[in-house]
Amino acid sequence: MATTPQSATITLDDFLASAELSEERSELVDGRVVALGAASFAHNLIVTNISGTLFTALRGTTCRVVSQGMLVKPNRSENAFLPDVAVFCGGAELEPRRLELLLNPVVLVEVLSPTTADYEHGKKWENYRRLSSLRDYLLVSQEQVRVEWYTRQGEAFWLFSEVEGHDGEVGLESIGVTLRLAEIYEGVLPADGQSA
Asked: Are 152 and 134 in contact (CB under 8 A)?
């Protein structure tokens, strides 16, 4: 859950220094700190389900999954974001500052809530698509069984897809993994796809 950014601007180094000492999760967007509120039970279950599925599927490959805590820095910016789930391959490219910043995610996942949907469709997506390594961006609803999915097509184009229902699948060719919506929403939403 994102809140309104603070009015004073700060540098990325100052943000990282304060983030290192803080227990609160936040992001830096255009010099302003955006506090991230506590995640719902459904949000946490979805993140755990996705992370677990990806961890198992990626064992024995050069790809790794990290969740809820690894800051990502888009190319040519001083912004820093905390995706819900990130996958990188062939070793992590890190920018070593006070806290390490991941520079080469291949897949990014955000779990949406009513208060974060506009932010994650807008400002975050605007920044994430600057990442030359990024191949897939997933926006996962926590209110219904639905995943919005952007896949890179060449350098400047993205293909948008929407997958719904427990029998739906998201085929991530970039990492050779298929995510089944039944697994993403296991224990979260009943088979009719509406929130309990």
From this structure: yes
Predicted TM-score (pTM) of the model is 0.90
Residues 53 and 179: beta-carbon distance below 8 Å: yes
Backbone dihedral angles phi then psi of residue 105, each to the nearest 5 degrees: -70, 145
Question: Contact at 8 Å (CB) between 140 and 184?
Answer: yes
H-helix segments, 26-171:
41-58, 117-121, 123-128
Closest CA to 52 of 25, 83, 85: 85
Determine the residue type at 192. Answer: D
70: Cα separation from own chain's centroid? 10
89-119 pLDDT tens trace: 999 999 877 678 999 999 999 999 888 888 8
